[in-house]
UniProtKB/TrEMBL annotation:
Mg(2+) binds at residues 199, 219. Keywords: Coiled coil, Cytoplasm, GTP-binding, Magnesium, Metal-binding, Nucleotide-binding. This is GTPase HflX. Monomer. Associates with the 50S ribosomal subunit. InterPro entries: G_HFLX_dom, GTP-bd, GTP-bd_M, GTPase_HflX, GTPase_HflX_N, GTPase_HflX_N_sf, P-loop_NTPase, Small_GTP-bd. Residues 103-130 form a coiled coil. Gene3D superfamilies: 6.10.250.2860, GTPase HflX, N-terminal domain, P-loop containing nucleotide triphosphate hydrolases. It comes from Methanotorris formicicus Mc-S-70. Its cofactor is Mg(2+). Belongs to the TRAFAC class OBG-HflX-like GTPase superfamily. HflX GTPase family. GTP binds at residues 192-199, 217-221, 238-241, 305-308, 333-335.
Length: 408
């Protein structure tokens, strides 16, 4: 499909470190960025960028057949309206771009509802202004708003938000029940920046083939699978990735999805080791911020993925210069299956499971132990078996209680 040609614009303060690369990466998911413009100046109330530059860009847009303009900066409805009037094409900001990417990737009912919720929460504070502006005259991107009454539109959004929240609550309660059932197994959660390779790692650990793409926000909901070739049943959960500077309401919409992973017995923070040291540091900080926001205190392994793309020098540099951000580091390649078995070893070590011993002749209990726990030793004595096994603490206690009942 032919993708729309887009112009990308970033306005920043003199001492701001931002660059336009992240926006370019985001925009490329849906559009073809043909022009990038960076302006250093304080924000202009009418256009965000300076009015002199606006005039220049009008020419550029015609010349290059640009169909959409995307700002890295947050735009007010008035700024969007003014810019669309000048440019004659739709103007959106980064948040709207991310929402559009979310839309494209939302495959499950829950993901679709989450995206809708984020969208409505973005829309709510702007709704009244948008309707008022649309009544002043047509502009690209403002179609449809003019037919509404200001308050009616605002109230409709508020109502829709309530309805969606209610629906999401029901879906989550259902998932919580499923999670309870799984509670006897150890769960490892994958957490990390978008595009770090979380889904690829889930695939490598479980032998599955969930979609992974070189795109941001491919995954929007959680999936749980069993780790292959592990001595006992261990589950691993994939989830939506993070990105820095996303507004509060957007993280909010996806938080419970992230929380699901964060409730795990062990967290794998997945990092793209081929990023620059500065990017890795920045992204690791974002990871820790989110983990602390959801109150996660599970043990951590820092998984440096895509190690096929880097050499020994870079590995050393990561370990020395980022030492204070790293817990139990390991370099792997999910795509080329490098060090995955070692990662499973490390997971087993970190999970630090509990050991139990039962004496039984009950075949059902024995086969349950073989299927769900790691058998360390089995001794036969007078027609009974003494079995030493390893599993999650709660599960060991549960099994010991059952074994006692069977004996009694
Ligand atoms: N070279 C290399 N590429 C990898 C590796 N692991 C993943 N990738 C690529 O990185 C891209 C992102 O991988 P995903 O697994 O989708 O990443 P993710 O963290 O799940 O991303 P989102 O779900 O979009 O947040 C894909 O193009 C993968 O093929 C690796 O070990 N080496
Ligand atoms: Mg993914």
């Amino acid at each position: 499909m032919l993708r729309k040609k887009a112009m990308l614009i970033l306005r920043k303060e003199f001492n701001e470190k931002k660059n336009i690369e992240e926006l370019k990466e985001l925009a490329s998911v849906l559009y073809e960025p043909v022009e990038c413009v960076v302006q250093v100046r304080p924000p202009h109330p009418k256009y965000q960028i300076g009015s002199g530059l606006v005039e220049k860009l009008v020419e550029k847009i015609k010349e290059k057949d640009i169909e959409l303009v995307i700002f890295d900066n947050r735009l007010s409805p008035t700024q969007k309206y003014n810019l669309a009037g000048k440019f004659g094409v739709e103007v959106i900001d980064k948040i709207e771009l991310v929402l559009r990417i979310f839309y494209k990737h939302a495959q499950t009912k829950e993901a679709q509802l989450q995206v809708k919720l984020a969208e409505l929460q973005y829309e709510l504070p702007q709704a009244k202004e948008k309707v008022r502006l649309a009544k002043l005259g047509e502009r690209p991107g403002f179609g449809g708003y003019g037919d509404y009454e200001v308050n009616k539109y605002y109230n409709k959004i508020k109502r829709d938000i309530t309805i969606i929240k209610e629906k999401l609550k029901r879906i989550r309660e259902h998932r919580k029940r499923l999670r309870k059932k799984r509670k006897k197994f150890e769960v490892v959660g994958l957490i990390g920046y978008t595009n770090a390779g979380k889904t690829s790692l889930l695939n490598a650990l479980t032998g599955e083939s969930k979609t992974s793409k070189n795109q941001v926000f491919t995954t929007l909901t959680t999936t749980t699978r069993v780790i292959k070739n592990a001595p006992r049943k261990i589950l691993v959960t994939d989830t939506v990735g993070f990105m820095e500077n996303l507004p509060h309401f957007m993280i909010e919409a996806f938080l419970s999805t992230i929380e699901e992973s964060a409730e795990s017995d062990l967290i794998l923070i997945v990092v793209d080791a081929s990023d620059s040291i500065e990017d890795i540091e920045r992204k690791l900080r974002t990871n820790y911020e989110i983990l602390s926001r959801i109150g996660c205190s599970s043990p951590i392994i820092t998984v440096f993925n895509k190690c096929d793309k880097i050499g020994e020098e870079k590995k050393k540099k990561i370990l020395t210069s980022l030492e204070r951000y790293i817990v139990s580091p390991i370099f792997v390649s999910a795509k080329y299956n490098i060090n995955i078995d070692e990662l499973i070893e490390l997971i087993l070590e970190k999970l630090n499971a509990c050991i139990g011993v039962v004496e039984t002749s009950d075949m059902r209990l024995i086969s349950y132990l073989y299927e769900n726990t790691e058998i360390i030793e089995k001794i036969e004595e007078n027609g009974k078996y003494i079995i030493t096994f390893r599993a999650k603490e709660d599960e060991v206690n549960r099994i010991l209680r059952i074994a006692n009942k069977l004996r009694g």
